[in-house]
Automatic annotation (TrEMBL):
The lineage of its organism: Bacteria, Pseudomonadati, Bacteroidota, Bacteroidia, Bacteroidales. PANTHER family: GLYCOSYLTRANSFERASE (PTHR43685), GLYCOSYLTRANSFERASE 2-LIKE DOMAIN-CONTAINING PROTEIN (PTHR43685:SF2). This is Glycosyl transferase family 2. It comes from the Bacteria. It comes from Xylanibacter ruminicola (Prevotella ruminicola). GO terms for molecular function: transferase activity.
Length: 211
């Protein structure tokens, strides 16, 4: 995950990411985009308690989308595992079973999986190729429409909360962060996503219900 001036979010939410009960083991990588608040201090304190927390930073961030891409690229280079999750420090896992439940349910034939936080639990949407998920990534990262956390049927508009992807394919996803579509291209993306998700509500969708 990447963070900027999010000391409060890290205090409140990061321990939930770090306390997952997952037998194979995992690591949490946080890239600090040169925060000006107490984010570095919070991360330093948490590292004392959690040995699987790795932190690094991006110096002097400037343009939003490029900064996001650069930060995630730094995190990818530090990652040791074959599968990675692009997560958000704002969105706290609802339990310590989430990572194991994802592993038990994940469609390993897919190249990319989008995760949605819903009232029923976590919803996973699988895609065969990175190209299929291109519109979702570009629209979200360009913040075409404000994302409302846990809003009902967010998936119909592609308002995902996290991305699951193989590390070797993640660079292709990051390439979408740099693209600058026109107004009409953005509108086309919006309706393409809506109609695709509306017509395939039960296609490659998996729920992970809350305990």
């Amino acid at each position: 995950m990447t963070v900027y001036d999010q000391d409060y979010d890290l205090r409140e939410n990061l321990p939930a990411f770090l306390e997952q009960k997952y037998e194979p083991g995992y690591e949490v990588i946080v890239v600090d985009e040169s925060s000006t608040d107490e984010t570095p201090d919070v991360l330093k304190l948490l590292k004392n308690d959690y040995k699987h927390l790795y932190t690094t930073f991006l110096p002097k961030p400037t343009y939003y989308v490029k900064r996001k891409m650069q930060s995630l690229n730094i995190g990818l280079k530090a990652a040791k595992n074959d599968w990675v999750i692009f997560a958000n420090a704002n969105h706290k896992p609802d339990g310590d079973y989430i990572l194991q439940a994802i592993d038990d349910t994940l469609d390993f034939t897919a190249e990319v999986v989008l995760g949605y936080l819903t009232k029923k639990g976590i919803k996973l949407q699988s895609f065969d190729t990175c190209q299929e998920v291109k519109d979702y990534i570009i629209r979200k990262e360009r913040k075409i429409q404000k994302v409302r956390t846990r809003k009902r049927k967010n998936y119909r508009f592609g308002r995902y909360d996290f991305i699951i992807i193989r590390k070797r394919l993640a660079i292709e996803i990051l390439g979408y962060y740099e693209q600058s579509p026109s107004f009409w291209q953005r509108q086309a993306m919006r309706w393409h996503i809506f109609w695709k998700n509306l017509m395939s509500s039960y296609e490659r969708i998996t729920y992970l219900p809350k305990e």
